[in-house]
Amino acid sequence: MNSIASKKLAIEQVSVEAVTDMRISKMNLDFYPLMGIILIPLKLSSPFRVHYFKLILSILKIIVWIWLSTTLSKSLTNLLNSRISFMSL
Q: Is the full-model pTM beyond 0.90?
């Protein structure tokens, strides 16, 4: 009796995990592409995970550098314009 209950529980657990996995994969493809980027390495083997994360980090570094350069150039331009207008007074 106990083994039947444990087998039933194991089957229910596997089916719940399968449904959850299907929902996560559908959610990644349809609605949450950024979440898919994070969850893709979980399906890759170990050496590919390292390369994948290095690629993601390098892309993020490029984005941060672009953002910083545009922000700094805008602030420097504003600073120079304010100095020029102050000197002309």
A: no
